[in-house]
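Lab notebook, bench 4. Continuing the backlog of folding jobs that were queued last week. Each job is logged with the same field layout so the records can be merged later without manual cleanup. Today's entry covers Nitroreductase family protein, a 227-residue chain. Filled in by technician R.K.

JOB TYPE: sequence-to-structure
TARGET: Nitroreductase family protein
LENGTH: 227
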Amino acid sequence: MTDGATADTRTGDEGRADEVPSALDVLHSTPARRYLSPEPIPDEVLWEILDAAVRGPSGGNRQEWGWVVVTDPQVKRRIAPWYRDNWERAYGHRREEFLAGTAEGLSPAGFRGAEHLAHHLEEAPVWVFPVLRGAAAATDPRTGASIYGAVQNLCLAARVHGIGTSLTTLYAGHEDELRALLGLPEDALTMALVPMGYPERGRWATPKRAPVEDVVHWGTWGVHARR
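JOB STATUS: finished
OUTPUT FIELD FOLLOWS
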């Protein structure tokens, strides 16, 4: 394994559950995990993960955010169909193309994982919505962008505990209904949905990426030589 064989044994991964991965191990091996078990996440573990999330970036250290944790099955059942409708419009109607590898955007394996999540979203035991105050009427596309660093803290901390996550916005288009359902302030905007759970399938692998030398530019765009 590329992650130092550190994963929780409940995931079926190699390694010992009592080994704590290094920071670089975690950074290199936190892919989206979309096959999630309904097994509950202990409250003390969830609080530790959330406490790590709020140590992440906040523009001007204003911390104009909130983190809404959803575990109520009825709330999930209200939101999940919105997600599936958007999934179908964006990807699902091209299922055969994606599975044949003739469509860009998702590999066949990536499509199967994303499709599974769409159809089993409410089975993830915990959902977290990062919420930003003052963003509901914003027109600047960078408004509150620093919150995504804090969201990544959430995902990395979950990884340390053997808990899988993925970051998605496919529920979008129902913000007013979601605001009412979650009791959000009028000026608040949800910035993502992060379903969390112990992985049922897969492993903590290094995501496939282009070589770093191909995407790093020294000084000006197009200069790839290492210093």
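OBSERVATION: Residues 1-16 have pLDDT under 50 and may be disordered.
SIGNED: R.K.
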